[in-house]
Predict the structure.
Amino acid sequence: VLPFGTTNMNAKALNHTQSRQGTLNNLEKVIRTSTFRSQMRPLVRVEQGNTVQHGFFFGAGVIAQVVDRWNEERTTGSLTNQARTLWALITGLSTISSETPMAINGKPHKLYGLLASTLDKLLFGSRPYWCNSQPGDLRLTWVESRAANLLKHAPAILRGKPGMARVPGYESRV
């Protein structure tokens, strides 16, 4: 996976810390020798009506709203995009009001935001899971719409601090 694009979460998960040049050198070697290494990675499958999508990451509620906001304001340039992403996250978390109805394992919830991923790390190297899991597991992390002190807990969520398991309205599961 070539590390080009806007967030590079997939490339970073598969290539770890390899540089663009290192990845291109490996691609050239694969083309020359026809030998390559493969990895199995589970995908997230999301169905909404007649639409089915597959990927390594799925977000709902405020997560989807922040992505939409970011896509509207996106410009070229990696540093500019990273700054805009960070700004969209900060302003999104503090200004977007969201209550997204969703069922998780058949139980209804009103969520502020949800993310599901098989990747171990997400944007900016965050690891927003505090459940016990293995690499490649499908992890769900969500915040209920009425959860208290979101801005106070945001750093602990992004780092996957185990203490979040005791805070009402914040969940992380495999």
